[in-house]
Amino acid sequence: MTSSDRQEAPGRILVVDDDPVTGRFLTNLLGAGGGFDVTHTLDPAIALQRASSEKWDLVLTDVEMPGMTGLELLQALRRVSPDLPVVVLTAHASLDYAVRALRDNADEFLQKSTPPDQLLASVSSLVAKGRAARLAARQAVLAIGAHPDDVEIGAAGALLAHRAMGHEVSILTLSRGARGGTESTRAGESEMAALALGATLYLEDLQDTTIKEGDPTIGVISGVVEAVRPTVIYTHSLHDVHQDHRNTHRAAMVAVRKVGRVYCFQSPSATVDFRPSRFVAIDDEVERKLMAIRAFASQVEVRAYLDADMIRSTARYWSRFGDGQYAEAFEVIREAATPAAPPAGPAPGVAAARPGGGPAVTLDGGAGPAGQPPEPARVPGARPEVPDAAP
Ligand SMILES: [Zn+2]
Fold first, then answer.
1. Strands 261-265 and 327-335: what pairing?
2. Which of 182, 258, 282, 337 has the highest local Cβ count within 10 Å?
3. Which domain holds residue 86?
């Protein structure tokens, strides 16, 4: 096990074998002997269903089973869960099986006559490798807004693009927006909007219009950062006339100081000093973004900035600097890799991490649209792409 596995539960292994005796033997070997959490099923169809709906570290399958062979199961598993390690185990030393299993990308092809310690070693090594690869590839996005609908207006398109790439997406909304509607209505609306975006919602209860730049705001954000372990952050820009938005930005800068990629979205109350240098095309996401915003039905009637036309035209405008017809625009605070498991700890040098209130926020991404060629990369966490020539 690698050190990053230290706090994880034992690996979950799904054994698929229509022979109960072999199933029991493997369950004992890997469970009692290897410390794994082992589930045995006799039916490959059930195995496929469970493999697509639950988290597993490895599937160990027999070849000859009624209904679906192990090799058919392997092919199906590759479609629903391409990264899940699969070991094919057979009683027959058939070269044909071996070739087909390897062609279909089995991670290992073993015979049932393989000595138990060798089998256990192969499985342990594959579980560890699979976990390390998943951890390295994991992208978790946290979007932080002061009020219900802030994140949706500023970054819903980018969040949907992250979701489409398989990234985990969470939204932290710091207040329930009592000043702009009844609390329970707006909480329900926030849930609906998060559902439309495929995001996990953290809805906190800070006081609308009096959100502080220090605690409790920093503590609340830090708690969610601890739970989500984000690799990408979206939050308010400091260039905003709303004090809650500015204070959310300041508190977030402290709480997310160990996160590598940090971006600021545009709110309807942003000032002309909002100077984005990252533009995410949202052509495929704009309708769903509008659907998420329509979840805030109690506000749509009274807030001009929730008007679909306004949201669409803002996105249409920003596409000047990026690809496609519609784009969301972001200021870049920093773009660095995030360590896999950021260690928790008290905030050192809070003052140093804080932009300080003036317009002199360091935008590590460089100058605004006029000075910097826009990046064609869709959302951070995608593979790095070569910037196009200047517009
Ligand atoms: Zn707001």
1. antiparallel
2. 282
3. 12-136
Q: Does one domain contain both 254 and 156?
A: yes
Q: What is the mean pLDDT of each run of 10 residues along the chain (391 residues)?
A: 50 92 92 92 92 89 86 88 86 70 77 88 90 82 95 96 91 81 77 93 91 94 95 96 96 95 96 96 94 81 76 95 94 80 37 32 32 48 42 32
Domain count, the chain: 2
Same domain (yes/no): 117, 210: no
Do residue 182 and residue 102 come from a single domain? no
CA–centroid distance, 268 to ligand 1, in Å, is 8
Peptide bond into 380 cis (omega under 30): no
Per the CB < 8 A criterion, the answer to whether 265 and 237 are in contact is yes
Q: What spacing in Å lies between the alpha carbon of 213 and ligand 1's midpoint?
A: 15
| Distance of CA 267 from the midpoint of ligand 1 (Å) | 7
**Has residue 243 been placed in a domain?**
yes
Distance 351 CA to ligand 1 centre (A): 25
Residues in the chain: 391
Ligand 1 midpoint to CA 293 (Å) = 13
Kindly state whether residue 5 falls inside one of the protein's structural domains.
Answer: no
Q: 144-186 pLDDT, tens per residue? A: 999 999 999 999 999 999 998 889 999 999 998 765 556 677 7
What distance in Å separates the CA atoms of residue 374 and residue 391, rounded to the nearest whole number? Answer: 8
Q: What is the pLDDT of residues 335-360, one digit of tens each?
A: 987 654 443 333 333 333 333 333 32
